[in-house]
Design goal:
Layout: H1 5-26, H2 33-39, H3 47-50, H4 54-79, H5 84-92, H6 95-99, H7 106-115, H8 119-140, H9 148-168, H10 172-191
């Protein structure tokens, strides 16, 4: 049965959205096309009508995941205009974010996977990281002068590292300590 162009595009967007979540949860190689397409409610045969390869889907799903992450940062900042940095830290370095692997930070979830792929897969991560840095620079610009870019890099590195470590350890108290310590240190860096 043929589907309309509109339905085909809706199906394609569904696959990208589902892949965005499942790749973050399982990694690029941790889920096969059959399971991915099944989760999207489609057959595996439909995949190659929509995407050139799994890598093509990885690029598009990564772009979607990073756009989603950027929207979450923006929503947090909008919700707390008096302390936008605190709002970002509050959701990013939280136990809840630690637990939400499928909707969490794509850099944490897929960074090491992306590093093993080609330039096409790395490109959306680089763009997303640059967006994170620009946002952090704006958030700390009132307290900084010349070292704005390097401080934003240090803050982002600490945030990604703390969330990664918090996800790796089994002890929830140790995980929370990494998150809480990162919040305090980011505040110190931003205020220095």
């Amino acid at each position: 049965m043929r589907v309309s162009r509109v339905q085909a595009e809706e199906n394609r967007q569904t696959v990208i959205n589902v892949a965005s979540r499942l790749f973050r949860e399982h990694g690029f190689d941790g889920i096969g096309l059959k399971d991915l397409m099944e989760a999207a409610g489609l057959t595996q045969g439909a995949f190659y009508k929509q995407f050139a390869s799994k890598e093509d889907l990885a690029v598009q799903a990564s772009e979607r995941a990073l756009e989603s992450a950027s929207c979450r940062w923006a929503a947090a900042m909008t919700a707390e205009p008096a302390d936008p940095l605190g709002a970002v830290l509050g959701f990013y370095l939280s136990v809840g974010h630690r637990e939400e692997r499928a909707d969490g930070c794509p850099v944490v979830a897929l960074g090491s996977d992306a590093a093993r792929h080609g330039d096409e897969v790395k490109a959306p991560f680089e763009a997303g990281i640059r967006t994170y840095l620009e946002t952090l620079e704006r958030l700390i610009s009132q307290t900084q002068g010349e070292e704005l870019e390097s401080k934003a890099m240090a803050i982002l590195s600490m945030m990604v590292g703390a969330l990664t470590i918090a996800r790796v350890v089994n002890d929830p108290d140790l995980a929370k300590s990494f998150l809480d310590t990162a919040v305090a240190q980011v505040r110190n860096i931003a205020a220095a």
